[in-house]
# Entry
Amino acid sequence: MGQSSPSATGRARRLTSAFVAAGVTLGVAGGLAALTTTSSNAATAAGCTAVYSTTWDSGSGFGAQVVITDNGPAWTNWTLSYSYAGNQTLQNGWNGTWNQSGKTVTVTNASYNGAVASGGTVTPAGNFGYSGTNAAPTSFSVNGMTCSGTTPPPTTPTTTPSTPSTTPTTTPSTTPSTTPSTTPSTTPSTTPSTTPSTGGGGGGHVANPFVGASQYLSPDYAGEVNAQAAADQSSNPALAASESKMAGYATAVWMDRIAAITGTGDSVHHGLQWHLDQALSQQKAGTPITFEVVIYDLPGRDCAALASNGEIPATAAGLTEYESQYIDPISAILADPKYSGIRIVAIVEPDSLPNAVTNQSKSACATATPFYESGVEYALNKLHAISNVYNYVDIAHSAWLGWSSNMGPAAQEFAKVARATTAGFASVDGFISNTANYTPTTEPFLPNSTLQVGGNPLDSAKFYQYNPYFDEYDYDQAMYSQLVGQGFSANIGMLIDTSRNGWGGPNRPTALNSSPTTVDTYVAANKVDQRSFRGDWCNQNGAGVGSRPTVQPYGASNHIIAYVWIKPPGESDGDYPSASHSHGDPHCDPAGTNTDGNGGTYSTGSIPGYDVPAGQWFAAEFQQEVENAYPAM
# Structure
């Protein structure tokens, strides 16, 4: 199951060691550039190809994936088999049913990926523990066909501390722990790496547009922030001092309606060309500047919620309007040669394609889906044609697409749209998760979703409902593997919107509490996400600003290339129907409820006492987000 009501707004790399089988070239799965090695004695017409790589390695645990390709007739099902030479022990796995007997690992297809066309690929992946040497396996078979080759010279894996990927499985870990760990996972560093990625630092279309660049600071947002800090100065000078710091962080400019292109006519929200001119004035000689813009006005937009329903109908005429009156004017402005030195990061249609995956039971979404797909395809075509524009497609968040029944089909949906574009997969530079949402980047005291408490895995808790991804870091790592398995380049970058997912303040746990004996009480005592229901998304009470916009937060070789603030903190998610107005979304009503699809009912979690339209300044929300910032302001 997945979330039915995503966040509304209104307004990604580690070098790996790898193994080459069957004479294919090796692309390092987590690398910034392809590392190629070819076996000189491997067969050229094998029935299958297997490319093994590690996606992280801490010295005592690691992630591994195997990209298997069908080089013969189509498969209706598949079983992968290989063996380790050392003591590598399976912890969990996804994109198939994983098992281990002794040193031999087998993976059988999942229900959604058994059919593989001739030339098609699938990418099972898993997490393992080990001690000593972590040598790559040297032989693979798929459905009894051997795919063998030679191992290239080893690449020393990066061991930058990070939370290992907690990954989905249909059964608990084959080696579950029965004693909760007393030590939380290492919190990833938020210090930007000074090592540029391949092509970084300016000149042409680079791998990571944030490397070597300054970031645009919106005067519109700075004006809202400074006005609030001035208003709070006399009553709470300490808060005002923290609030004023917010103006120094980059936030995105939202093109959430056609009128936003030229400006709404007020003194708060200026048009796209005005902002780009401001970016030129902020740019320092010899240094690129990044400018983040949100493309957000599809026909039938926000089909599963009401807070940010769009202005364009989900019809053929609406699609024409979207293309000619929205995308075409935006692309014409962005293509102006005077802006060619700005690295324009386009966040493409939040909450659109995820709805095409999970919400087809809603008639509005079923109607809108073909227009979503065609609209995103058109937008990618127009924007990719501008060499200094970088396209990042929205992939929702872990609480929506984290279930295996959602993740695989979602990757297929993104690939379907990309393949339809003129440039194919090259039209997408990467993906972004958690746009305008509240899901934590990491859950430091819940690093293992299959940890056994009271005889049950943690992901069986009501809060997670067997969704194995508790945070955005793990979700993005797994989604990266899914996307590369569908054909996207290994160089795609993953972004995380950390604008409101900090969950600091007095309610944030500061140490592991290992005393609870049931999964529900254990999760409640240790999760930093303070929502009662992960599906809550509107103006969340108790939320705080998250990690500041950061380039390469996990180092140059990690798939996650930057933390960004796409949703400007302090701007409302939406209002709700009331006696004074009929528009809005009931999910934003502090007195309302949300349901989980399994009979559970929960509070919306919205800040009580307020009804602020989407995109408008919400003073009380901004104040609490600053007060609850983590790390603290």
